[in-house]
Amino acid sequence: MKQYIKADKFYFPYSVKGKGYLEINEGKFGKFYTSVQGEGNIIDYSGYQIAPGFVDTHIHGFGGYDVMDNNAQGLEEMSKGLLSTGVTSFLPTTLTDTFDNFYNVCQTIGQFAGKETGARIQGIYLEGPYFTKTYKGAQNENYMRDPSLEEFNAWQEASGGLIRKIALAPERNGALEFIRAVTQQNVVVSIGHSNATYDEAVAAVEAGASVWVHAYNGMRNMQHRELGVVGAMYMTEDTYAELICDGHHVHPAACNVLSKQKGNNKIALITDCMRAGGLPDGKYTLGEYPVIVENGTARLQSSGNLAGSVLQLKDGVKHVIEWGAGTPEEAIRMASLIPALSVGLEDKCGQIKEGLNADLIVMDSQFNIVKTHLSGKCLYDAKG
Asked: pTM of the predicted model, to two decimals?
């Protein structure tokens, strides 16, 4: 029997619909109606609003687990925990490491993907190891090196073809040839942890790179005579900027500047969350480094530098709205459809569209997550 979700508001890809009924047919989105058509079970969410599940394309860990732990059970716990944040699809994200550790992690994720019971693993994001030491951030410079297509192909084979995105610094030797090669394999290349000049960054985009890693962070800033990576991010229209809206990585006013310069249809909200996400303040690790989590930030114990975040994507959406960087419709799109588009996943997730998996969230008027559905079934309820 068909199901209908009744609610006050529905966020479709580029429109918002008022009171009505969203058809769910065998776990897939169906049509939208202003009144029930035929027989069906009605799930009554009157007083609430419905949006597509969020898509986090840059996340290292959650709930005490980290992708680099190389543990299938950890991936499963991340998958389940993320439902409380509104995320229904994600790209497990690596940290700069050795060839062997990357190989093993890719193999583990590749073998586990499809078995998770919570948020869906939609691919792998290799953040590193082809970065520059100048903007290393919280990544280990001892493993940073020039791009190697041979290495990448080995990792891709180990993953079963699951690598969807890889980040690099375009000033590394051989970067442009590498970008051209992997984009021909339908892998998205993002630019970050980079000291590239404006011209080097633009050349990388012309070679096929299309995403900017956590905008403003880990990249050469813009000066009036040398625009750097930030200037290239502003000036290249057909590229997407990842943005961490936690109020610590980027000042709210800078988020507004990016919104005006790029347009919100080219900004993908991410968390860059590490293992402490969803947990109390305290001492944790990111890769090989001790981290202190307090007051909403994760920082390296040694230097005080930011070390990923503990942001939940639902809160990033709220911040966009609160800071005036976007309307509610835009903020929700920045956490769902735009990240999906940025990595070519729009036909799998990120939007309420007939035929796609009915992965959705139920929100109250303050944009708090009330319930999260996968394939039309409620798998998370804030009330327990």
From this structure: 0.97
